[in-house]
Amino acid sequence: METIERTAVQRPFGLVKGFVAAYGAMGAAVFGTIVALAAADGTATGFMWTRSALVPVSAAIVYWLVTLAARGSRRAYQRARLIAVVAPIALVGVDLIPGVCPLWFLLLQTACAVLLACAAVPLVRMRATFPK
């Protein structure tokens, strides 16, 4: 019985890891686009460099936290859940400030935010797995 319960708990973590990995891959692709753009014509701004570099870094951190949470760490779970809920709002919210970035960048960052928000759903649903 314990194995079935453990498998049932681990399944959502696998789903979350998949979404976080996709978030990181998409973020790395956006960063690569910024590198190529800067090399080609130099139109990448400091804001775009910073934002596109932070996504893969945050993905690595969230993935690590989810791995720790899957092993039973309540604090890692809480941090991963918090980042997965708040970061998508921050990603899109800041990019919506008029003139801060081009539309294509906003759309790519929004795609990243959607992937991380998808990871937030199972994390929020697992709240009962980590009681206070």
Word description of this protein:
With about 130 residues, the protein is mainly α. The protein has one domain. Helices cover about 85% and strands about 0% of the residues. The chain is built from four helices and no strands. Helix 1 packs antiparallel against helix 2, helix 1 packs antiparallel against helix 4 and helix 3 runs antiparallel to helix 4. The longest helix is centred in the first third of the chain and has 39 residues.
Helical stretch tally: 4
Q: How many strand units?
A: 0
Biggest beta-sheet profile: none
pLDDT averaged over residues? 91
Oligomer: single chain
State the shape. elongated
**Euclidean distance between termini CA atoms:** 24 Å
Ranges with pLDDT <50 over ≥5 residues?
none
Based on CA atoms alone, the radius of gyration comes out at: 17 Å
H and E string: HHHH
The percentage of residues in β strands lies in under 5%
Q: Which structural class is indicated by helix and strand composition?
A: mainly alpha
Classify the helix fraction into a percent range: over 70%
How many discrete domains? Answer: 1
In brief:
By secondary structure, the chain is mainly alpha-helical.
